[in-house]
Amino acid sequence: MVQFLEVVQRNAPTSPRLQEITRRPALAKTRRFSVVIGAVLLSFVCGGTLAAEGQRVDLVDRTSLRVCADPANMPFSSDKGEGFENKIAEIVADELGVPVTYTWFPQAIGFVRNTLFAKRCDVIIGYAQGDELVLNTNHYYRTAYALVYRKNNGLDGVDTLSDPRLKDRRIGIIAGTPPSATMARLGLMTHARPYPLMVDRRYDSPAERMIADIRSGEIDAGVLWGPIAGYFASRNGEKLEVVPLLKETVGPRMIYRITFGVRNLEDEWKRELNRIIAKRQGDIDAVLLDYGVPLLDEHSNPITKPRH
């Protein structure tokens, strides 16, 4: 509807044009018809535009920070408030001076449609930059997919999937993620063990299963999204090596910027969140580092302490 109103607005007559029409001495019937039609269109456009502008403001609840989140998606979010996105939401809410409220929905197909687009919440705390489905804020961290393995198993120093030492190794991979395409091009899928991407994490955690399989020796290594790798590799057992894949030259990119996602056209809300990110970047970094997220600066150098 907003797009339609914009098209009408571009083609509707403006007020000076209407005044010119009313001054013409000839073609009285055409003149009266044009004035009526023009007035109707102008009224529709102006009213619709004002309604759209009002809607943009009113959609964002100012009495609380309404967050769209998965109830069981550690280390990102949980309905117990244990994820790092929960902690970051608290930082944003503190800056706004309001409480946090959640709309819970499994982060699978339909997540954005049933939460943000349904106007049940106003922000997704973690969203990859560049996806046009939502309006991205400035990014608040940058990270990469990572290779995970046990120390002293012959893989020490491996930092790229094209390393010959990975040939014939049993490597875990989340099906459908960017590294799976790279592994296929490098001939690493023959001995790979796939784990499902789309699951209800209230009942299954493929990443935790992969980490457990690495620790038990069931597989030799695994490739996971950096925040997931960093969190689970340092908990509940032997600490594993986590190596961000920064040097890949084959296949899709491995490094991504992460933003807040809001509804398209909500530019003022986006700018407000950008101001908070800039002001509280150090606090956000501290949370991410505490959860083991491998943070990268714009030159892909590791960030080991909060930025201020």
* Average pLDDT metric: 85
CATH architecture of the largest domain: 3-Layer(aba) Sandwich
| CATH homologous superfamily caption of the largest domain | Periplasmic binding protein-like II
Strand content: 15-25%
String of helices and strands: HHHEEEHEHEEEEHEHEHEEHH
The shape is: globular
CATH class of the largest domain: Alpha Beta
Give the radius of gyration: 26 Å
Give structural notes.
Helix 1 packs antiparallel against helix 3, helix 2 runs antiparallel to helix 3 and helix 4 packs antiparallel against helix 10. The strands form two sheets. Strands 1, 4, 5, 6, 7, 8, 9, 10, 11 and 12 form a ten-stranded mixed beta sheet that branches. Strand 8, helix 6 and strand 9 form a beta-alpha-beta unit. Helix content is 38%, strand content 18%. With 308 residues, the protein is α/β, with parallel strands linked by helices. The longest helix has 31 residues. The protein folds into three domains: 57 residues; 96 residues, D-Maltodextrin-Binding Protein, domain 2 (3-Layer(aba) Sandwich), CATH 3.40.190; 103 residues, D-Maltodextrin-Binding Protein, domain 2 (3-Layer(aba) Sandwich), CATH 3.40.190.10. It contains ten helices and twelve strands.
